[in-house]
Design goal:
By secondary structure, the chain is mainly alpha-helical. 71% of the residues lie in helices and 6% in strands. It has one domain: Methane Monooxygenase Hydroxylase, Chain G, domain 1 (Up-down Bundle), CATH 1.20.58.1000. α1 runs antiparallel to α2 (51-86) and α2 (51-86) runs antiparallel to α3. It is elongated, with a radius of gyration of 18 Å.
């Protein structure tokens, strides 16, 4: 079974993940929303908005990023990690543990 999502690229032996156009569209849409939230926070600072209101928006951005990260991690585990484990690469488990720690 070949993993169609993760592979090594020719550029300095770096790994890459192929995503379908639909996946890219969904991720880009979510990132654009987050970008808009951050621009909103920037405007709030410019407008001297109340600290509590700014902090609430920062919390919303953090939650949005966390949700996006969890979605990407879930896909990674279902595709790339599963493929590596099936091919005997158990070292991938350490990578996943580090990724989970970084997402917390």
């Amino acid at each position: 079974m070949n993993c169609t999502n993760c592979k090594k690229s020719d550029k300095a032996n770096k790994r890459s993940t192929h995503r379908t156009e639909e996946e890219k569209k969904k991720l880009t849409k979510r990132l654009n929303i987050i970008e808009g939230q951050i621009r909103g926070i920037n405007q709030m600072i410019t407008d001297d908005r109340y600290c509590g209101d700014v902090l609430i928006q920062i919390s919303a951005v953090n939650k949005s990023l966390q949700t996006l990260g969890n979605s990407i991690l879930e896909n990674h585990m279902k595709t790339c990690v599963t493929h590596d484990i099936q091919n005997g690469n158990l070292e991938i488990l350490e990578e996943v543990m580090q990724l989970i720690k970084k997402l917390q």
